[in-house]
Amino acid sequence: MKGFLFWIGCCVTGILIAVFAVSGTPALADAAEVGGVTLPDEIEVAGEKLVLNGAGVREKYFIGVDVYAAGLYLKEPSADAERIIAADETMALKIHILTGMLDSEKFTEATLTGFEESTDGHTAPIQDEIDLLITAFAEEINKGDAFDIQYIPDEGVKVFKNQRSKPEVVVPPGMPVKEALFGIWLSHRSEKHLQELRKDLLGK
Question: pTM to 2 decimals?
C-alpha cells in the first residue's frame, strides 16, 4: 500500500512539474532575449511599473547587420501605435547597441531622419527640443552601450546612457516632441526593417 501511495505521489509531482514547465515559472518568465540581449519583462520609471510590450532588432537594410535591440515598455500592453504615440503617460524604450559600426554621428543622423519621417517633415515647431535631445548621443557610442529613453508626464523626456544615475539630457515636457520621438519607432517608416521592428515593438 505504501509503495502504491508513493507511486501515486510521484505521478502527481511529475504532472505538476510538466504543467509549470508549459505555463512558465517566475524564474523563466522574468526576461526576454532579443539579439543576444536580455530585456526585463518589467521596469520601474518614476515610481510606475511598466511592462515589456514588445521587443525586436533593428537591422541595417542593405548589409544585414544587427544594429541594436530595442524594447518598448508601457503601463499596459497595447498594439495600437497611434494610441501609444498620443498617450500622455509614462513609457520607455530600451536600446542596446549590437555593432561597432554604429557611431555617434550615424546614430544622430538616424534619429534626425526618424524625426523627419514621424512628423512628415514638420520638425520646425519642435526643432529646439530635437536639438537638445540629440545631444544625448554626442558622446562616443560603442558596441554594448545601452540607452534608456523615458517619457514622464510633467517631467518630459529623459535619456540615460549605460544605467548612469544622471540623465544625459532632459527635454522639457511637451506632447509634440514626445509624439514625434516615439513615432520614430511606432509610426510607419519608409524602410522595410524599421517596419518590422515597429511590429515587434507592438507585439504583433
Answer: 0.83
